[in-house]
Amino acid sequence: MIVYVLRRLGAGVVVFLSVTALTYALFHARGGDALARHFLPVNASAEQVHRTAGSLGLLRPLHVQYLEWLGDLLHGSLGFSFDSDQSVLGILANRLPVTLSLVVMSLIITIVIGVPLGVLAATRGGVLDRGLQVLTVVVQAVPGYWLALILAIVFGLVLRLVPATGYVPLSVSPTGWFSTMILPALAIALGAVAFVAAQIRGTMLDVLQQDYIRTIRSRGISSRSIVLKHALRNAAPPMLTVLSLQVISLLGGAVIVERIFALPGLGSISVSAGQQGDAPVVLGTVMYMVIVVVVVNLATDVLNGFLNPKVRIR
After folding, report:
1. How many helices (DSSP H) and strands (DSSP E) are in the chain?
2. Residue 314: what pLDDT?
3. CA 113 to CA 198: how far, in whole Å?
4. 79 within 8 A of 293, measured Cβ to Cβ
5. 133-137 — which CB contacts under 8 Å span 24+ positions?
6. Within this chain, do residues 110 and 259 fall inside the same structural domain, yes or no?
């Protein structure tokens, strides 16, 4: 098991280096002068632009810049923002809890609603099953930003049940925090609920058709006991994989939703930094998101390894 975990951890390191290096290369593809121009007046001369690019360290070879960034990272630094000259680590540290809490709340909603809905659709069938299939098609066809806007208008502006925009830290007011997070979390989670429910429905149908389930059923064991004690246990590995993929999807959805609901998270600042050409902030944001994805995938692989020993020999 230790060898298996180390192998998966090594794969995560490769993913981290690949994604951050590609992001660095793409962001700097325009050249140092083009990035430096974002921080100068429109009428700045070419000499001023070139001098600013040099002062920001953008004229050195790209691989040298990236290796220096990795070196700073190993020493616990992400550099300084080109725009505000503040520590990138300090800027992002205040925003990471917002994004993580949004993703965690969305994941809880997805699990609490999506998993039982998928199990019920597989075991009960009928109207519930057909309704789930229709819901999956409809929700997947609706853009996430459109759904977020509808929720903000209906529940925030028309009904005034919760604030339409803004953010209240959990340390200031738990109820205020919940009221500002519930709509963004629902906006991200609704699509995930339909997808997870549909995937779990298919997984449960496959498990329930296995020979050992028919054998257990022939012994007179109740359907409830079969589902809870046998079918769910064997369907757990595919369920974990589906949920881990949804964490990645929820993290991506947070980028747009945070902008719509004015949440001070990683998603909103990554968009702003990208528009301003603030490379250190963009790369720091990507780093945090890649780490979350790698940790989630590693945890999923380890849990699957415990649940299914055959996975460890891959």
Report:
1. 15, 0
2. 53
3. 12
4. no
5. 133/198, 135/194, 135/197, 136/194, 136/195, 136/197, 136/198
6. yes
Dist. CA 223–CA 203, nearest whole Å = 17
CA distance 133 to 54: 57
DSSP per residue, 231-242: IHHHHHHHHHHH
Question: Cα(105)–Cα(127) distance, rounded to whole angstroms?
Answer: 29
69 and 204 part of one domain: no
Per residue in 286-307, pLDDT (tens digit) is: 898 888 888 888 888 778 777 6
Q: Which of 245, 246, 248, 282 is nearest to 267 (CA)?
A: 282
Q: How far is CA 256 from the centre of its chain?
A: 12
In this structure, are 77 and 179 located in the same domain?
A: no
* 291 within some domain: no
Residue 173 CB contacts under 8 Å (≥ 6 apart), including other chains: none
* Unique residue bearing structure tokens 């810049």: 65
- In this structure, are 50 and 114 located in the same domain? no
Q: Which residue has the tokens 């079918």?
A: 231
Do residue 100 and residue 196 come from a single domain?
A: yes
Q: What pLDDT does residue 178 have?
A: 93
Q: Rounded CA gap, 119 and 93, in Å?
A: 39
Q: Are residues 131 and 162 in the same domain?
A: yes
Q: How many domains does the chain have?
A: 2
Residues 41 and 120 in one domain: no
**Are both 110 and 251 inside the same structural domain?**
yes
CB 163 within 8 A of CB 179: yes
Express each pLDDT in 10-68 by its tens digit: 888 898 999 999 988 888 777 777 778 877 887 788 888 888 888 888 888 888 889 99
Q: What is the pTM of this model?
A: 0.83
Q: For residue 73, what are its two tokens?
A: 């990272």
Which one-letter DSSP state was computed for residue 30? T
Q: Structural domain of residue 48, as residue ranges?
A: 28-93
Low-confidence ranges of the chain (pLDDT < 70): 1, 307-314
